[in-house]
## 1
Amino acid sequence: MARAVIDKIEMTKRLVAFDTTSRNSNLALIDFVRDYLDGYGVKSELVFDAGGQKANLYATIGRDDQRGIMLSGHTDVVPVDDQDWHTDPFKIVEKDDRLYGRGSADMKGFVATLLSLVPELVKRKLREPIHLSFSYDEEVGCIGIRTLIEVLKDRPNKPRLCIVGEPTEMQVGVGHKGKHVYRCHVHGHEAHSSLIHLGVNAIEAAAEIVAKIKELARRKRDQGPFDHDYGPPYSSIHTGLIHGGTALNIVPRDCEFDFEIRPLPGDDVPGLIKEIRDYAATLLPEMRAVQANTDIVIDEISAAPSLSTPTDHEATQLAAALSGANGTIKVAFGTEGGLFAAAGIPTVICGPGSIDQAHKPDEFVALEQIIRCEAFLQRLIDRVSVS
Ligand SMILES: [Zn+2]
């Protein structure tokens, strides 16, 4: 069958042209990738979200009786809303040896480079398989990949290691902090503000909990634990969003706020949350003395574990050999790697472009980075091929 070969730059253009902002369906992109792989005889497995509007794509190239190596990327991108772009974010513009477009660095450049090597991969006789994993909803808390991990984790041939192609400028990332997001809802009781003794002020209770969270944040800052490969070198905690009340002359019934913990690998998140919950519980007797059905509810919204892969692990050694990097880095951003590692798939991070350009207007990936990524993947293919 005659087939036009799509090179890495053309493939980046095609992928960026799909507006896969996390709030949108990614199915148009997934269908395109599935059809592309199909054209090379590679079957895709799609794992959908509950609504059937988004999907992860998983495909194995080569023998399926071996665990093999997984190459992983997310298909969604962050919004361009309210950003001052100088070009159309969904149309790649090539300028000054850079490809400008939303997702060019984070991380369609990697996915595209990988896809452009599929024709090469299917030609070679592989000693162990290469698995492709393309997820949805990474940017909103590493949500999508979880359903795929559920499918993979008990398979005898689940990947023996994984490389996530998030932008590290092709350095080898072995660690990142986790990210745990919580929402606290204080259910108070409404009253006219001249009669505060009849009301339960939800904002004030929330403020006390927020102050407690700040106290824990200071404790982490001052007492650690510390890892100076990270900036900041401690687990960070903060409150980022708060809504409460309706008018000044009404004792507010409801207040809701979101806070997050970004723990260093190994730090005790359950212990911190227990401390916050225990503190919140001390506020309840006073609230309930006024109105019995008041409450404070703290829900976990998302939890993405940290990543900490040993520098002497075979995944690290492999990525270092392929990239030619000496030394490893720890990255400031979270990835799906922590979830893979927790599921028994040791993971390192190595991909083209810089996180400095990710999520910003005029996001770009340097062509030199794409070329280095291609060389990295080419060396991987050579290494796993019989000849
Ligand atoms: Zn990313």
Note: Residues 202-223 form the longest helix (22 residues).
## 2
Amino acid sequence: MDRWFPSTRLCSACGALAQKLPLDVRQWTCPCGAVHDRDVNAARNILAAGLAVTACGDDARPQRGTTRTGQSSAKQENPRATKGLPVL
Ligand SMILES: [Zn+2]
């Protein structure tokens, strides 16, 4: 996730990016009419971004390669059993 993701001022309803918000502004209204608490809005956007990244990571995960060795151990082991955690 981009560390500069504008989560506090990206409308979680319509996706519009608001003007830069002073730190003392706790709530802002999007041109679309949605009123956002900046913390709640940020949480929604971060959650959405996190889910998107997770989904992409699953789809983009390369298949387990067998080019490291030319030996025949690949037939004996279950690739799933030795790779329980996805590499992020
Ligand atoms: Zn909006």
Note: The pocket of zinc ion is lined by residues 11, 13-14, 16, 30, 32, 34 (CB under 6 Å).
